[in-house]
Prior knowledge:
The structure holds two protein chains of two kinds. By secondary structure, chain A is an all-alpha fold. Chain A is built from 15 helices and two strands. In chain A, strands 1-2 form a two-stranded antiparallel ribbon. The N and C termini of chain A lie far apart (49 Å). By secondary structure, chain B is an alpha/beta fold. Chain B folds into two domains: 1-82 and 168-257, Rossmann fold; 93-167, no CATH class. In chain B, strand 1 and strand 2 form a beta hairpin. Mean pLDDT of chain B is 87; it is low at 249-257. The A-B interface holds A 10, 185-186, 188-194, 196-197, 200-201, 203-212, 214-215, 218, 222 and B 53, 75-76, 79-80, 84-85, 87, 91-96, 100, 103-105, 107-109, 112, 114-121, 123, 162, 166.
Amino acid sequence: MKSLREHIQRDFSKNVIIALSVLLIALLIFPKFSSYTMLNLLTRIFVISVFAMSYDILRGYMGFINLGHAVYFGGGAYVAGILYNKLGTTIPVFILSIAVVVLYSVICALVMGKLSFKKGTSVFAAAMLTLALAEVVRNIAESWRDVTNGTDGLIFKVPSILSNRIFFYYFSLIFLIVMFIILRKFILSPTGRVIIAIRENEQRAEFLGFRIENYKLIAILVSGVSAGLAGLVFGTFNRFANTELLSITYSTNALLYTLIGGTGTLYGGIVGSIVVNVFQNMLLNLRSIHPIFERWLIFLGILYIAVILFMPKGIVGTLRHFIENRKVKSDNEKSSKTEKAPGE
Amino acid sequence: MMGEVLIKTENLGISFGAHKAVSNMNLELEEKVFTTILGPNGAGKTTLFNLISGLLKPTEGKIYFKGTDITCLSPVERVKMGMGRSFQLTNVFPNLTVYENVRLAVQSKENIGYRIFVDHRNYTSINQKADELLEKVLLSDKKSFIASKLSHTEQRKLELGMVLALEPEALLLDEPTAGMAIEEVPTMIEILAKIKKTGTTVILIEHKMDMVKALSDKLIIIVNGMKLIEGEPEAVSKHPEVLKAYLGGGVIDGINT
């Protein structure tokens, strides 16, 4: 068994390790100097990042557009709220809610996967199916008023330690780091590799002897459970769940985070979540300056269009491309120099 | 030279509407025999392969592999039984490295199951095999290239390497030299000769006879979805009906060289 250090060194260059350590330290001491508003913004970003990464497993790695991804996210928030309201606001209930969310997400993923990964279903038909399934769940949440409080949304209390903003900040940061490691491990696993192969060429993967449906099902299970847990943490953070969390708005939000950040990288989801949330926050603050910023969604839309037009690979994808190009260039320069050397 | 029958088809046929692409196909493909299926364009060679490998379901007849009826089995099940195929149009994972393409194929063969928390780079035996295969198909120096950046010929070799990784008992190759520049063909023939030596049963589709005459133990000529004739290469290539079919079909390339 290799040591942890060797593992880290294999995956990350020295510069990246230093940068990440600095970033981590900065994030750890951040609450000492920050306002609650900034703290909440960062907490939100951490949780949304997990949701975005879970989406990237399907879209970026497997090449599947899921328009019903909010089912897991919203479901996670509702499960937390319902359990707190019915069973009380204690830590054991929180732990129980984790188990229930996992179970709920597994069931949703199995139904969604079995229906939309049927052989011969086109990408569009499958995407429409996921959308329809999500609408079914949203409608149930809307009409089951006794439990979900319908369109008014569900307000609930959470265990006192979880309502401490500074504690929750650290909790979400750890949640993000743990989920990043788990999802990265998944992508680097043999199963994760096959999921990438399916994106690349499904027919070839099949004729290499991989049972495509099973691999797709595993991917949606991993992705769904991650999104469900993100929803649980998000709900606990907001102490509120409404049907919007289950709607296509949230599914397409996840799509847009990965679009802006860059797909198939996992980091992309985090970057996208940072950019969108910070931008959104800035626009909301500008409302006091000029009333046009009341219509902040217009500006967000312009941002999306600009990124898709000028950076179709997203921020991370474009940066990567840029760095690789520079590397190739400097390599070429080096090799041309060494070629010249004997003649000099 | 005749071994056990590995693949057998009984009255195999498929129709697309009124068009019978393959009909009444009775084949017996023996073990360790290098069989080449020849025929003019549109004769139904690839359709026959699609039927045998499970990409298409036949409308009539049966297919047996190693004595088992596989007519209703999925492509994956046929691969697991020991059937590997390449495609006429290059079929690789375009945005993955050459190495990863082959490694995935080895991973499938090794049947390690659905592991989700072990790093794929930790399987040393798989990595080793992938390296060996790249050597076999003469692509070791292109290991870290992205597959789509390879030349057409190299991509064909890569696909062959992937199919070889499955260590198939029956290797179905659909025109491995299609689209290759003429001077690149000999290296492909060389690789095919090497595969033949290892004792793998190769079934090859070609439409240029001169390329494979020396390599093949048996030729099967298909015209209009039906078997015209089969037998030893020398005898078949001189058969008057074959000459007629080829000339009549307008395909004269290579038949009389």
